[in-house]
Amino acid sequence: MAVGMSSPGPAHTAAARVDGPGIDPDDLPDGLVVADESGRVVCFNAAAARITATPRSQALGRPLEVALPLEDLKGKRWWALTDPYGGLATRGGQPERNLLLPGGREVLVSARYVREHPTGPVRRVVVSLRGTEARRRTERSHAELIATVAHELRSPLTSVKGFTATLLAKWERFTDDQKRLMLETVDADAGRVTRLIAELLDISRIDSGRLELRRQPVDIAAAVARHIQALMAGGQAPDRFRVRARGPLPDLWADPDKIDQVLGNLLENAVRHGEGTVTIDIAPAPAPGGCDEMGTAVTVSDEGPGIPEESMGRVFTRFWRGSKRGGTGLGLYIVKGIVEAHGGTITVDRGPGGGAEFRFILPVSAPAYLN
Fold first, then answer.
1. Which stretches within the chain are classed as H helix?
2. Which residues belong to any copy of the Histidine kinase domain (predicted)?
3. How many whole angstroms separate alpha carbon 166 and alpha carbon 159?
4. Each residue of 144-166: pLDDT tens digit?
5. Could you tell me the end-to-end alpha-carbon distance of the chain, in angstroms, rounded to an integer?
6. Ramachandran region of residue 340, left (φ > 0), alpha (ψ -120 to 50) or beta?
7. What sign does the CA torsion over 213, 218, 222, 224 have?
8. Nearest alpha-carbon partner for 33 in 50, 18, 48
9. Angle, vertex CA 140, rays to CA 345 and CA 53, nearest 5
10. CB 45 within 8 A of CB 25
């Protein structure tokens, strides 16, 4: 017996299990509604009852258009428009679309028309129902991303436009020092736009699973030292940083540019949002996945106020900001995506000094020909 079909004996039971694995329609995550050759509902699973807010007892045995009164977004009755039993004999169903239930609630609906042979009469209409909450969350996320990008781009582009227009119009009126200052500002703002575009590309690749890694041997301790030197060149005091490396470290094969991106983000966050000494611990650690292989763990902690307990679960989500000191709120989301693309893990906790502590572990991930 097919999934979702009640037997002809008992009067319109909820659903019957299929032969073999014994799948009950009530175990399905989506709503399932099945109508027989006469157009009456013979299956109405628990998810369908929840999504439509219609008790199963009120749906079973009733005509499909009565048990599931759907309308399109223009208010037209959907079953009258599609006419599954009397429409085109070559039609096999309906693709997923947004429709309305009584009260204006939206639901995602797709349908399949089951025939014994390609152009024969419809023997069953199988309808799948899904709520729109997940799609709405995705749409809101996309809208937030667009709003964030627009906001972050507006300021540097306004600055670039303003300074270049001023220089073009009044070049002779400015001294060389004034010209240099304005051009340096334009250069810094152009760099900010470039970084934002790079972040958007990274997010797109992470979300689609297309983040490419070019693995090669990486000296993680040397990479940390380079970032610290860059921060000190930018004005940070040398005693702001403390590096503790415990070895010997296992060989690490990773994408050096992506690892630099992770280290740069974590160290800049610790400097910008934290206080006191920034401590970087590098040590061997069991690789993620419960195997016997060793990996490399890097811990970055500061002595600032830390991250509130209630925010710990949102740190690696899009648009999370630890303070009001600028930033897009995309950096840690990208960091998590890069670490996980390497097969690693990253966590956040409260550090020994009271501040935030970020710890990521990367497996060795050596190429197969070296094993």
1. 46-52, 56-59, 64-67, 78-82, 133-170, 176-208, 220-233, 256-273, 331-341
2. 148-366
3. 11
4. 777 777 777 888 888 899 999 99
5. 51
6. alpha
7. positive
8. 48
9. 105
10. yes
Grade residue 104 by pLDDT with cuts at 50, 70 and 90: confident
CA–CA distances in Å: residue 332 to residues 73, 104, 127, 161, 305: 39, 39, 41, 30, 18
**Conformational region of residue 290, where left means phi above 0, alpha means psi within -120 to 50, and beta covers everything else:** left
Provide the whole-model pTM.
0.61
140 Rama class: left (phi>0) / alpha (psi -120 to 50) / beta:
alpha
Cβ neighbours around 265 below 10 Å, total? 20
Q: Name residue 156's amino acid.
A: P
What CA–CA distance (Å, rounded) separates 216 from 316?
Answer: 26
Q: Which of 54, 42, 49, 56 is nearest to 10 (CA)?
A: 42
- Map tokens 């999370």 to a residue: 320
Nearest-angstrom CA–CA distance, 128 and 109:
6
327 phi/psi in degrees, rounded to 5: 95, 155
Tokens of 296: 């490399």
* CB of 218 closer than 8 Å to CB of 365: no
How far apart, in whole angstroms, are the C-alpha atoms of residue 68 and residue 320? 41
Per residue in 56-96, pLDDT (tens digit) is: 999 999 999 999 999 988 889 999 999 999 888 888 999 99
Nearest 5 degrees, angle CA 12-CA 13-CA 17?
130
Asked if pLDDT for residue 136 goes beyond 80, the answer is no
Q: Which is it for the CA torsion 225, 289, 310, 283, positive or negative?
A: negative
Q: In angstroms, rounded to a whole number, what is the distance separating the alpha carbons of residues 299 and 358?
A: 6
